[in-house]
């Protein structure tokens, strides 16, 4: 079955044209049921990693030069974005990018299309409404009228409608007030408790390390540090560079 599948990135090298090598031999895993975090400064290659995972690299003139991406042993690299979603790996894009002119309800229905007739649509909807009651209250409002935090919730809800086994989160707390960022963090933890694995890309290293089981540090396209999140949170290097202490 799909649940039980580890998302594995192995030796991934990605370039944009001839000039820019954005990732170099990146290897990491998102085991079933875990939260895995990737930390890194601006330009480290975090977004590129997510583009490679979601099959959208070619839209940005990027290409995988070497390496593999697999889910439960099945190769994902080379699939189109819809194929990746159908396989169970669904991205919540940075900046949220909900369909502003569509209603909340219509956005959620658009997300469900990704599941391609797999059963369980009603359960997915119930789950989203339980996680984000505000989306039920605002079902008929245009998504563009929601607050930033509510749009993040809608983007996450839309992704969950596709019933992912792995959810890819790109900076989910970016630009949100601290209280809203905390709420989003709590929701990520709850989504994970319900059995969905999460790959979390976050500038907010403190939040990411609190939520994650395992974390990786990406620097100029390479993984330079990997380990249990609590060990990384205690390391001098991470504290100085990403947590702003010491
Ligand atoms: P940020 O947090 O600022 O989004 P990031 O860690 O996500 O940074 P990427 O956006 O993946 O980093 O960028 C990695 C490198 O690839 C950078 O040097 C960037 O300039 C380059 N890059 C990203 N997209 C393209 C593109 N479409 N064409 C050429 N170079 C690109």
TrEMBL record:
Signal peptide: none annotated. CDD domains: ABC_TM1139_LivF_branched. GO terms for biological process: L-amino acid transport. InterPro entries: AAA+_ATPase (IPR003593), ABC_transporter-like_ATP-bd (IPR003439), ABC_transporter-like_CS (IPR017871), BCAA_Transport_ATP-bd_LivF (IPR052156), P-loop_NTPase (IPR027417). SUPFAM superfamilies: P-loop containing nucleoside triphosphate hydrolases (SSF52540). Coiled coil: none annotated. It holds the Pfam family ABC_tran. Keywords: Amino-acid transport, ATP-binding, Nucleotide-binding, Transport. Residues 7-245 form the ABC transporter domain. GO terms for molecular function: ATP binding; ATP hydrolysis activity; branched-chain amino acid transmembrane transporter activity. Belongs to the ABC transporter superfamily. This is Amino acid/amide ABC transporter ATP-binding protein 2 (HAAT family). It comes from Thermomonospora umbrina.
């Amino acid at each position: 079955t799909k649940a039980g599948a580890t998302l594995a990135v192995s030796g991934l090298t990605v370039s944009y044209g001839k000039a820019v090598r954005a990732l170099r031999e990146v290897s990491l895993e998102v085991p079933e049921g875990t939260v895995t975090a990737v930390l890194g400064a601006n330009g480290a290659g975090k977004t590129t990693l997510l583009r490679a995972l979601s099959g959208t690299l070619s839209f940005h003139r990027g290409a995988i030069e070497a390496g593999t991406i697999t889910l439960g042993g099945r190769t994902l690299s080379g699939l189109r974005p819809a194929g990746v979603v159908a396989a169970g790996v669904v991205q919540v894009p940075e900046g949220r990018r909900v369909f502003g002119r569509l209603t909340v309800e219509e956005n959620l229905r658009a997300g469900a299309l990704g599941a391609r007739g797999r059963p369980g649509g009603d359960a997915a909807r119930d789950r989203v409404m339980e996680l984000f009651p505000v989306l039920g209250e605002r079902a008929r409002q245009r998504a563009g009228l929601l607050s930033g935090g509510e749009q993040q919730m809608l983007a996450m809800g839309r992704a969950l409608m596709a019933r992912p086994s792995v959810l890819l989160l790109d900076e989910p707390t970016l630009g949100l007030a601290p209280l809203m960022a905390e709420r989003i963090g709590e929701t990520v933890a709850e989504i994970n408790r319900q059995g969905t694995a999460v790959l979390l890309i976050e500038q907010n290293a403190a939040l990411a390390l609190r939520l994650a089981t395992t974390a990786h540090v990406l620097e100029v396209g390479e993984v330079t540090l990997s380990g249990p999140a609590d060990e990384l949170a205690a390391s001098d290097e991470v504290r100085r560079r990403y947590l702003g202490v010491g």
